C-alpha cells in the first residue's frame, strides 16, 4: 500500500513539472519574435531587407561563413597605392597611403532567391557591424588605422551570390629596417606585412588577387627616392607561446606581403655634400702657394677649411641613425678629413725646415735624399757635418748650388764636390773663363805632364759630381712645389677608388 502511494506521489510531481515547463515555453514564444520572412524581398528597402537577412535568428557574425561545412575561407586581397613617403633615415620607417580591398564569399548572405531584382547591397560601418569580417593586422606597423571602428573611408558591398567586398582607405606608418652601408648610394627594400590574427591557416587563407594585386596611382611621385620595383608574395607564419608573435597562440597563420624596392636619389647629396666637400679640400691646397714662413695665413686657411668641412659633414650626419657599421658617407668624410689634415701637417713640416739655419749636404737632389736629410735627427746631422769638415779632401771643397742642381748616378761617393777655378787663355779678347772641376780630379791630374791644374781638354766630358748643399728655405720651397702636384693626384686617385666602390660593388 505504501508503495502505491509513493508511486502516485512521484507521478503527480512529474505531471506538475511538465505543466510548468509547457507554460514557460508558451510564455517565451509569446515574448520572442518570430524570425522575419525573406520572401518578396524586393518590396523592402535596403536597410529593411538587410535587417531581415542578417537577423540574429539566422546569422551569427562571430562564426565563420563556412562553420557548418568546415571548409577553408579564402580571403582575396588587393591594394591601390596612392602615396609612399619614406621618412628620414634615422626613423627607419615609411608612410603608406593606400586602399585595401578584401573579397570573400559568405553563403549565408546570398539573397538571389529572395530578392532577384536587387543587384547589390552597399553600406558603410553600419553594415560592417552586422556581418562577419576577417581580422587582419600589420605585423610591422608603427601606427595605422586598419579595420577601425570609425566610419571614415569604409565601404562594404554584398553581391546576390553572397560575395562580400570590403574596401578601406588606410594611412599606416610601417617600420623598414634599412641597410645604410652604402648611404647615400643605397637601395632600400621595404614591405607591408598583412597577417591573420584570429584564425589559423587551416580555416582561413589569405591570397592576393591573380590580376594586378597591387596597383600604383598614376600621380604617385617620390622625392628622395625612386621606385625601382615591387612584388607580392604569400606565406605562412608560425605562432607559438614563446615568442608571443600572434598573442601567444600556437599554429600556422596565413600572411601576405607587399614589397617594394626604393633607390635613393643622389642629386641632393651631390649638390649639398660631395661637391662642396671637394671644393673645401681643394681650398686647403692653396697653402702650398704661400710662403713657408707665412704661418698666420696658412694656419688660418687650414683651420677654417677643417672646421667648414666638419660642419658640413655633421649637418648631414644628423639625419642618420647611429649604427655600428661604417657607411659610405663616413668613408668619404674620413678621406677628405685626411687630405685637409695632411695639408696642415705639410705646413708644419716645411715651416720647421724653413726655420733651420744651417745648409744641408745632399748626395742627390731628389725626394729620397731631401726627405732623408730633413728627417734626420739634429745630432746625427751635426756628426755628419763634423765628418765632412775633418776629411782632408772635402774640407777644401766648396759647393755651389746656384751653378748646378743636376743629380748624378756616379757611385764614386762623397769624394766628388764642385770646385770653382778661373782659367786665363790667350786670345784676342782676354776674358776669364769659369769652369767647374772635381777636387779629386785636380789632385789626380796634378802630376801628369802636359796638363795644368785648370786645363780642360777639348771634347773631354766634365767630371761628374754627386754632393751638393741646399739651404733650408730651398728645401721648403722644393717640398711645397711637389705638394702642389702630389695632393691633387692622390685626391683624384681616391675619388676613382671611392666612386668605383659605391657604383660597382
From TrEMBL:
Per its record, the protein catalyses: chloride(in) = chloride(out)
CDD domains reported for this sequence = LGIC_ECD_anion (cd18987), LGIC_TM_anion (cd19049)
Keyword presence, Signal: yes
User: Per the record, which residues fall in region Disordered?
Assistant: 390-415
Q: Which SUPFAM superfamilies does this one have?
A: Neurotransmitter-gated ion-channel transmembrane pore, Nicotinic receptor ligand binding domain-like
Polar residues biased stretches: 390-410
Compartment list: Cell membrane
Q: One GO molecular-function annotation for this sequence?
A: transmembrane signaling receptor activity
Q: Could you list the residue ranges that cross the membrane? A: 273-292, 299-319, 331-354, 485-503
* PROSITE patterns linked to this entry: NEUROTR_ION_CHANNEL
Which UniProt keywords are listed? Cell membrane, Glycoprotein, Ion channel, Ion transport, Ligand-gated ion channel, Membrane, Signal, Transmembrane, Transmembrane helix, Transport
Write out the GO cellular component annotations: plasma membrane
Membrane topology type: Multi-pass membrane protein
Q: Which residues form the Neurotransmitter-gated ion-channel ligand-binding domain?
A: 48-265
Q: Where is the signal peptide?
A: 1-23
Could you tell me which residue ranges the Neurotransmitter-gated ion-channel transmembrane domain spans?
274-499
Q: Which family does it belong to?
A: Belongs to the ligand-gated ion channel (TC 1.A.9) family.
In Swiss-Prot or TrEMBL terms, this protein is called pH-sensitive chloride channel 2
